[in-house]
Amino acid sequence: MSVRQSLSLVELFRATPVKSSLLALGPLALAVGQLGNSYLNGVSFAVSSPFAVVMVAFAVVAIRHHAAEHRLRRLEDGLEPEFGPAR
Known about the structure:
By secondary structure, the chain is mostly helical. The protein is built from three helices and no strands. It is rod-shaped, with a radius of gyration of 19 Å.
């Protein structure tokens, strides 16, 4: 029986703040910037909204992958060798 432990976003940001910020906030800033640029230049939102949707989806997938990497690293750090170091 496996027990699934969830990793909070706050814990992930505390463990690796720079990488988490780049993966989560970078694509969101690009999406908002593209939408703002579209508004300021009078371009239809039908042009820039697909880009914004893709950037938000990328941020979600990237942060979930980063969380999985972090959980794996914590799991591997918690393992102790059974027979001592290899020679």
